[in-house]
Amino acid sequence: MLSLGGGGAKSSKPSFVSYITPEEIKSEKEPPKKERHPNLLPGEVVFCSADPILKHTQDDVSQRGIFGTLLCTNFRVSFVSDETPLEETGSNLGDLISLQMLFCFVVYDEKRKMITGGMLKNKYPSKMIIHCKDLRVFQFCLTFTKEEDARKIFHGIAHHCLEPKSLKCVFAFSYAVSRSPEMQRSQRTVMFDSKEDWAQEMKRTKGNCRIVTENEGFKLSTRLPKYFIIPSSVTDEDLFKFQGKGLPIWCWSHHSGCALFKASTLPVPQEDGVIQRYMERMLDAAAQTHLYSLKIEDLSETLPTVQDIQQSYAKFKQFFLIDNSTDFWVSDVKWFSSVENTGWMDIIRKCLQKAVEVVECLEKENTNILIMEEEGTDLCCVISSLVQIMLDPHYRTLTGFQGLVQKEWVAGCHAFLDRCNHLCQKDKESPSPIFLLFLECVWQLVQQHSPAFQFSETYLTVLSDSVHVPVFSTFLFNSAYQRESTLKAESQHPQRGPLNCPAVWDWSVQFDCKAQELFLNPLYADKLKQDKVLRKVPRPKHQRQLSLPSSAFKTPPKKGFFKDETESLKKMLRVKRISRWMASPDSPAANTREFYEAWQRRPLDHHGLLLPWLDGPAVRLWMQRYLRWIPEVQILGGGPVAVTNKMAELLVQVQELRKKLDLKGCWQPEAERVQLQPRPLALARNSLRLSSAFPFASSRNWTFKPVIPTSLLQSLMLTDKLASQEDETTEVISLV
Questions:
Q1: Distance (Å, rounded) from C-alpha 604 to C-alpha 383?
Q2: Residue 142 above 60 pLDDT?
Q3: What region holds the Myotubularin phosphatase domain (predicted)?
């Protein structure tokens, strides 16, 4: 013990006492803490960071969490835990939140009061809650952080995630400049950015139209693709009128010869005969594609508007943004009715119903059909894509589906930049999830007809997340013109061509090979090569359609038959609302019901026509996407993923038994076999260890709360007690 005192005088009382030596103090000093950063991508720069940050779990009672470092880069907001060594985390991305993924930012002060507006400059942010577009919720406690660092990380995230920005500030351009040429990989997906791609597609479907190349320099229209297909009878003079508005753009051809077209609408003033005659010529050209038959479907009259879709989804997603367990159990009381009242599930049902009506026109009536809306790039993309998936098995394969998205959405000039609001523009409307609506409809088909699809629901979930990953150019632009002009302007070496941003279909940029195996459906059955020969039957001679004028059913002289029919149709086209003339006098629902019943009587063919089930509970909630981050609803060892994995294991055993039978001489004709390619789910050796949220949620983060929380349990017990008392009273009264 060391004492401090005077010289020869009486020693004063020691003012400081040390029980360890300075050498021990020096030896016990902690080494300087190493700054922890995730593995940065090429072109990624750290803007700010704060440490230590406590990341809370959703358990609001215990307030448990883990300490780590919170960073904000030009690509993402990332949390790196102090508990896990960097070398054990593999990619070390931590909890990745891309800047485009974040859409809501809530801040609380030390008194747990929400901080808003001008209060942010004076208040100390002690807690941040981040809501993401993939429905994740992150809670970060800044109490243990220096006030300066806390303010810095808060203002950095708020500025880079929520403030309006220019397109040039998106990380995709920094990544494209910095990545090495070795990282560029070949694409198997048809991108529909060349004349050859469109010619190949028209040849595959045996279409009878012509390819337009006049828009290679976007002189025709900046809202149309460089290449597209229109009816052969459209003249070059009409092609350059109204900047492509009203042009019937080819989507797909049926094997009978009829075709599906889409178009944007033109306002038709009653006194303006130029536009009226132009539209008549366009409809006439579409009708000539097959037997001079045409039906028009104005989607703006029969489907919800883009604003209705946005408002419905804004209400719908709130039921899955769970900040804590208490909020979950409170919302659980009326959860199903609340979700149904948002109208989101009904919108999905209406889109599928409309697609079935279009399929009926092509498959049963063999008539051309033209779908229209104001811009022709929103609901037209949804319906045309669904129709092709229902009719063409090629689009149910992985590469075929990706090609369909490229053709109808990317090359079709869907406004991803505006609809997803990647630039956080305040004057823009809230993000309108049109593409997510399409994926929702596809998921309904996948879960109803699983063996017909080569890709899994995990693939669809990952694709919906990838829309907000600012590394790829696929979902970043409003049109082909904007994509080409921007990439050319941002190129550092114009002589070498535009920037080469990766497409989202290069999944190796995001996932390793083992993870990509989860994109494939283990229950998918490949189509037999001999199938076409075995099932080839004489097709009945095509009968003329009821949509033709009545003159078609008379017996005029053979020479002038089609001429008279054309004149009759042209007279009928000269009306203000053409879509009303095209509507069938019979009830569409009744006709569709007959079409459904006829399809149900056929033998099930997963490589033929597929129709969705729309009655009652057939339209289900996409549980993997919406419930994957909520621990309370995860099923340990259960759920669809466990069932699928078990079926895949059984299929493997069946294949092994089949091989043994072949070796023993019990030969079976190859044509009678179903060529299954079972693939047990990667990383899933024991289905008991899987949760229903696999592979997105970890099985380590389990909440051990009772299935029914205490407050609700007490209320239910009280209700049961009162009910039992009423029963006893009733029994006494009956005895009396």
A1: 24
A2: yes
A3: 192-553
